[in-house]
Design goal:
The chain is α/β, with parallel strands linked by helices and 823 residues long. It contains 31 helices and 30 strands. It is 50% helix and 19% strand. Helix 16 crosses helix 17, helix 20 crosses helix 21 and helix 28 packs antiparallel against helix 31.
């Protein structure tokens, strides 16, 4: 009994030790050690040497964490995942799908491989035959032939081609003479094919090009059977493409750690030593592996193994005692049933009726579930899943009759404004009405809603582009008809449509949708409420944007960004009293890159926050440095992006920058656009009030190009209005611009605001603005934006040009009379 009394204490001790185990596993310097399990195709030491630089890179990027590589084969890696001995997993695509289904691991990023200096996000299979085999022209010609493949579980070297053969109506194990596995590496298949061991061979994409480039394979020896074309993919392939290796986390891995690792991987530059040692280009956001799941399920490969049928005879030979027991139980149940037969017979009719009713309800419920699985619950239109099936059927029929299939990708223009202003209830009602219109009044094989305000129309009965253009215009007119919703009787919306064609643009459904989506965005860029056909240049533009984004991320790390300064001149005294800080990017290969090339992309990707932080810190530091050099005290203006204003840590960051630089808050002006104020009015109001309390000045940049609402000038306590250069460029000749400039200046002064004109390039423009009472100006008349050293020389050498202007009111009145007297 005494020992029993000590059991609770022992349990408490064990629990305490298990909780403390992670802390005990940490290094003496406080960093916790995390293990990355990597699948080792080759020697474990070689695999560790390849990936340890990546682990070292993560150790430098993630605070209080150290990462190490553990290279394991298939069974050991699966065991390590099952027991939780690793925290992250890096394995091939097919193996990941099995672990995802069996162990619940989650992908964080997808590997961007590098083949022959090119970034590759996907791979597939290549089916090769001897170039002299003219009798082999299609997959169907492989019937009765011998086939060499790499391994039974190789996705690129076998399973992808297996799926392609099945889709072509060829069963490799029944219709082919033989299927032989060569084992790794892939070039064994090529050697066997050249030695006459088979009629065809299957390898991973890129292997053929690698052998040709190395000179190990003479040109015109082999050719690709049933080649496919995929936009942006450089290698020959005979199958659909699948995503590269994923980097995954286990369920026990802390969420914060997983997030930090993900950010570090996505930020890894292509020229980092870790990428070079690992032989890859970088990492991207995790791609969808649904296509791999579909392939393995179709082929019955793990984790979708088909259930093995067991015959009664085999079970009797293996376990006769079980069947004997079952038979005895049945006899006993039969006897009991006979004893209670009469009682059961009375209830039988009632039970039969109840069962029939239940089965009827079950069938109805199953029918509802089947309908819901393929249809959008709001509009009743087919959803993305059913659209995929209909699109595949349409493309197969088009192949047989050499026909055309068109995808019309529809996105409603500015539909978010309806949801935000009238409410989501009104937005849902509008979508329901639109769905009914499209279903009953627009002729198409399928009209589907794939989410939000996006619709897809599949057309397979149009023979020419002109007919498709007419159908697209009909669709735009149909959408533009008024809607009676939410108390409105004449509510209208527009739409932008992107069109992609099969087989002209793509031969895969997913790629066709992607291209139609790209064409839709081109329609939006063209002014909305129109349509555009897909062009290859759209894919090139997307690739160029990706390249610029990667180079910009690299530029932030390598300090390639610079701050230029444009002087701001006091109108009356002619002295340079301030500067505006402007970011410039000096790329080592392309030279100085214009801001209009990378600033919009930075705003879209969120990099603008880091760029804005850099400009703010550098500008404040530089002004204080000029003070030490003896330059006249200058005020500095810095632009704030919408993302910076919405960030919760802006006030803390600004205090920190001012404290570190020593710049007085009164000499700092923060410039915001009208759209930033209006689109984020609720979140901006409190932030700007706090900034005002800090002592900085607030300016509205490019005034007159946005909402131009007078209410926010008072509400947000603005100090300065900057007249956009579009209103200054044609002064004083353009009557409308002159009227607008006078009105803005008068209004600002009546509200107690200062006015600064941008883009002043001529003495006539300066004289006109001075006559209207404008307080300051900036533009090429004084100087272009300059590097810090050049700006300092300009300020030292600048000789003020005082401008004596007439009384503002009399001058303004005289100018107005002059303008209005003109014809």
């Amino acid at each position: 009994m005494r020992y029993l009394a000590t059991l609770p204490r022992l349990l408490i001790l064990l629990i305490s030790l298990s909780v403390a185990a992670p802390a005990m596993a940490a290094d003496s310097d406080g960093a916790s050690v995390y293990t990355i399990g990597v699948l080792a195709f080759r020697d474990a030491e070689e695999t560790t040497a390849q990936w340890q630089p990546t682990a070292d890179y993560l150790s430098t990027q993630v605070d209080a964490a150290e990462f190490r590589i553990q290279a394991l084969n298939y069974p050991d890696l699966e065991q390590a995942v099952a027991t939780g001995d690793v925290d992250f997993v890096l394995t091939n695509t097919g193996h990941y799908v099995r672990l995802e289904a069996q162990q619940g691991i989650t992908r964080l990023a997808t590997l961007i491989a590098e083949e022959q200096g090119q970034p590759i996000r996907q791979f597939g299979g290549t089916i090769l035959v001897l170039d002299e085999r003219n009798d082999l022209q299609s997959l169907d010609d492989l019937r009765g032939q011998r086939l060499l493949v790499v391994e039974e579980d190789s996705l690129g070297g076998w399973l992808a081609g297996y799926g392609a053969l099945r889709n072509a109506g060829v069963d490799p194990f029944e219709d082919l003479a033989s299927v032989h596995y060569t084992g790794m590496p892939h070039y064994r298949v090529i050697e066997g094919l050249l030695n006459g061991e088979a009629d065809a061979g299957m390898v991973r994409t890129g292997v053929l090009e690698e052998r040709l480039q190395s000179g190990d394979l003479p040109a015109d020896t082999l050719r690709v059977l049933a080649p496919r074309k995929t936009a942006g993919f450089p290698f020959a392939h005979s199958t659909r493409l699948y995503p590269e290796w994923p980097f995954s986390r286990l369920g026990h891995t802390p969420d914060q750690l997983a997030e930090a690792v993900t950010i570090a991987l996505l930020s890894l530059p292509a020229d980092h030593p870790a990428a070079r040692e690992g032989g890859y280009h970088g990492w991207s956001a995790p791609l969808s592996y649904g296509a791999v799941h579909e392939l393995l399920e179709e082929l019955g490969r793990p984790p979708y193994d088909r259930t093995v049928a067991i015959t009664l005879r085999a079970y009797w030979e293996a376990r006769p005692e079980v069947l004997l027991g079952l038979m005895a139980g049945l006899l006993l149940l039969g006897g009991l049933a006979a004893l209670y037969y009469r009682r059961l017979n009375r209830r039988l009719s009632l039970e039969v009726e109840q069962r029939r009713a239940a089965e009827g309800r079950l069938r109805a419920h199953e029918a509802r579930l089947a309908y819901q699985a393929g249809h959008d619950p709001l509009t009743g239109l087919p959803n993305r899943t059913l659209l995929q099936e209909h699109l595949d059927e349409a493309m197969q029929q088009a192949r047989r009759r050499d026909g055309l299939v068109a995808i019309l990708f529809v996105d409603l223009d500015r539909f978010k404004n309806i949801n935000d202003s009238l409410g989501h209830r009104v937005g849902d009602d509008l979508l329901q009405i639109l769905g009914e219109r499209l279903k009953t009044r627009f002729k198409a094989r399928t009209v589907a809603r794939i989410g939000g305000d996006e619709f897809i129309a599949v057309i397979d009965d149009a023979a020419e582009h002109q007919e498709l253009e007419a159908r697209a215009r009909q669709l735009l007119d149909l959408i533009a008809e008024p809607f009676a919703v939410g108390g409105w009787t004449n509510l209208q919306v527009g739409a932008s449509i992107g069109i992609a064609l099969f087989p002209e643009d793509a031969t895969e459904a997913g790629e066709l949708l992607t291209q139609a989506d790209a064409a839709m965005y081109e329609a939006k860029d063209a002014g909305r409420n129109t349509f555009r056909f897909y062009r290859t240049a759209l894919t090139d533009a997307a690739n160029q944007r990706l390249e610029i984004e990667n180079r910009l991320r690299h530029a932030l790390v390598q300090n390639e960004l610079e701050v230029f300064y444009q002087p701001q001149v006091h109108m009356t005294s002619g002295k340079i009293t301030g500067i505006e800080a402007l970011v410039r990017w000096r790329d080592p290969e392309r030279g100085l890159i214009a801001p209009d090339v990378f600033i919009p992309l930075a705003e879209e990707t969120g990099l603008i926050t880091a760029i804005g932080d850099f400009v703010l810190r550098e500008a404040c530091r530089q002004v204080v440095e000029w003070d030490r050099q003896g330059l006249p005290p200058l005020e500095v203006s810095v632009n704030l992006s919408a993302r910076q204003v919405a960030a919760p840590g802006l006030l803390h960051q600004l205090r920190q920058v001012l404290n570190e630089s020593g710049l007085p808050a009164q000499r700092l002006t923060l410039e915001l656009t009208e759209s930033t104020l209006m689109e984020q009015a609720d979140t901006t109001r409190g932030t700007l009030q706090q900034l005002k309390h800090l002592g900085v000045a607030l300016a509205i940049d490019d005034f007159g190009t946005g909402y131009s609402s007078l209410a926010y000038l008072k509400e947000f306590a603005i100090d300065i209005l900057k007249i956009d250069q579009t209103f200054v460029r044609d002064l004083p000749e353009d009557r409308n611009d002159a009227e607008l400039a006078m009105t803005i200046i008068d209004m600002a002064h009546n509200l107690g605001l200062d006015v600064l004109a941008e883009g002043v390039e001529t003495q006539a423009q300066r004289a006109f603005l001075a006559a209207q009472g404008c307080d300051a100006w900036q533009g090429y008349l004084c100087s272009r934006p300059l590097p810090a050293a050049s700006l300092a020389r300009l300020v030292n050498d600048h000789e003020p040009e005082p401008f004596a202007r007439p009384a503002p009111v009399k001058a303004a009145m005289a100018t107005r009379r002059h303008l209005r007297s003109q014809p």
